[in-house]
User: Fold PilZ domain-containing protein from Bradyrhizobium macuxiense.
Amino acid sequence: MTYGDRRAERVKLETRHPVNLMGVDGTWRRGCILLDISQSGARLEVDGTLDVLKAQEFFLVLSSRGLAFRRCELVRVDGSEIGVRFIEERKRKGRPVIPR
Assistant:
């Protein structure tokens, strides 16, 4: 299974970039390292257990203050690495996506 849109250009990060995963309800948080990212998804190395990811949907918090984040869904697990696909709010609410 792939994450994101494989046609989207991915950026592989050369340095370790710590980020966090956080439950949609805010009840859990898990540290991880951002390995690569595209417009539609990301690949992460998760610290600790993956049991909290059973929710399938969570936030990827990209800044230490929590101001930059993306809602995402789990699409792949490979050991401590996961693949996530970003969820667009317009799609989640059932509204049609209008091309720009």
User: Anything to note?
Assistant: The chain has one helix and six strands. The radius of gyration is 13 Å. The helical segments are 89-92. The beta strands are 11-23, 29-37, 41-46, 57-61, 69-78, 81-86.
